[in-house]
Specification:
single chain, 412 residues, alpha/beta, UDP-N-acetylmuramoyl-L-alanine:D-glutamate ligase, Protein-Tyrosine Phosphatase, Chain A, 2 domains, six-stranded mixed sheet
Length: 412
């Protein structure tokens, strides 16, 4: 019997493989008895806000009495966070069992980490009796491994620049990829507010539906304008008001009997939280902001929340992200910044030589913050705490997860 550690040793090296297409996932699922067909699904896509919308939808469905499975990515501390039923993560034994069962086919097919874990997720959710699943898109939408489902409803939260290498260099190109989670007979909810991006999503959703059924019409529902949820909300930050409005629209679009009562939506939204999103633990504040839009939302939230000063930020950003723009934004709201390389992102580290040049560039605009580059993660973690009223940890899921692990904070 494969151990949990051996299962992770098998899975994680496949993270470096990015392969678009659905055939491998379908083949793996077929060998498991097509578990993705055994439960209704809500499919959640978009650039930012996916995790929050997934959390809120799941919470409301649980409040309505359903046994709810979720599949999200990436994780913060433990792989087990990705596959959860009613708040309980997949067991180590189950990870080992499903990996051992899938390994021969995964090797034969050259399956990636995400293809293999997507098959595992559906199998485990079905085996644990999930009555409905909320499934978060991994990357893009059209060719993402999760796009094997026929959902009750699907949603695209918001389109921003991210993963351009794979999805395209414009917002329109990225929107086109993400819209193809639309399916015949399932409401397709749009959380975007920009008319030109909404139009791309509408057009491509219609094309996606017709590609399956030429006679079908897309059931597109646009969340109005700048509408934000007005009820009690445990999630912090003004951007979460919009995420909650989008989640509520998805829930109201679900068919009976899955559509929760308004009371269940209100009660669950007032209590639901998500680790790593403006997540305050004592003087530590964790936020996984990993692209410019995420950092902008974080900066707005810092203005609103006014955490204890001075704010010291520990920042490590993946090398394929728009980190110059992100640092310029952070520079306006923190008092001291420590740039480092987080251990779990070693293979995707940002350009330290560029950072050194940026720090000593005489032409750089005057900074509010005092910035230091301390590449050694342990030394950086020790340094950033000195004299801080609030320690902000941000830049990626890797950064937040690695610090949480060192400090002994468990996301679930």
């Amino acid at each position: 019997m494969l151990s949990y550690a051996a299962a992770l040793d098998y899975l994680f090296p496949r993270l470096t493989q990015i392969k678009f297409g659905l055939e491998t996932t379908r083949e793996l699922l077929a060998r498991l008895g097509n578990p993705h067909e055994l439960m209704p699904v809500v499919h959640v896509g978009g650039t930012n806000g996916k995790g929050s919308v997934t959390t809120l939808i799941s919470a409301a469905l649980r409040a309505a009495g359903w046994r709810v499975g979720t599949y999200t990515s990436p994780h913060l501390v433990s792989f087990r966070e990705r596959i959860v039923v009613d708040g309980v993560p997949i067991s180590e034994a189950a990870v080992a069992m499903w990996t051992e069962h899938l390994q021969p086919a995964a090797d034969k097919l050259g399956a990636t980490f995400f293809e293999t874990t997507t098959a595992m997720a559906f199998a485990d959710l079905a085996a644990r009796g999930a009555e409905i699943a909320v499934i978060e898109v991994g990357l893009g939408g059209r060719l993402d491994s999760t796009n094997v489902v026929q959902p009750l409803a699907s949603v695209v939260t918001k389109i921003e620049m991210d993963h351009q290498k794979y999805l395209g260099e414009t917002l329109e190109a990225i929107a086109k990829e993400k819209a193809w989670i639309a399916k015949p007979g399932a409401p397709f909810v749009i959380g975007e507010t920009r008319p030109e991006i909404i139009e791309v999503l509408r057009r491509e959703a219609a094309a996606a539906v017709r590609s399956v059924d030429p006679a079908a019409h897309a059931d597109v529902r646009v969340v109005p304008g700048k509408l934000g949820y007005e009820g009690d909300l445990a999630l912090r930050g003004r951007h979460q008001r919009r995420n909650a409005a989008v989640a509520a629209e998805v829930l109201r679009a679900l068919p009976s009997p899955y559509r929760p009562a308004e009371a269940a939506i209100r009660e669950s939204f007032a209590a639901a939280t998500i680790p790593g999103r403006l997540d305050q633990r004592g003087r530590w504040l964790f936020d996984v902001a990993h692209n410019p839009d995420g950092v902008a939302a974080l900066c707005d939230a810092l203005d609103d929340l006014a955490p204890a000063r001075p704010i010291h930020a520990l920042v490590s950003i993946l090398g394929d992200k728009a980190w110059p723009e992100m640092l310029v934004r952070l520079d306006k709201v923190v008092d001291r910044g420590v740039l480092t390389v987080t251990p779990s992102a070693e293979g995707r580290r940002w350009d330290l030589e560029w950072l050194k040049r940026w720090l000593r560039d005489p032409a750089r605009p005057p900074a509010r913050a005092h910035w230091q580059l301390i590449p050694d993660f342990s030394a950086a973690l020790q340094s950033v705490q000195q004299g801080a009223g609030t320690v902000l940890v941000t830049g990626s899921f890797h950064t937040v997860g690695d610090v949480m692990e060192v400090l002994g904070f468990q996301p679930v």
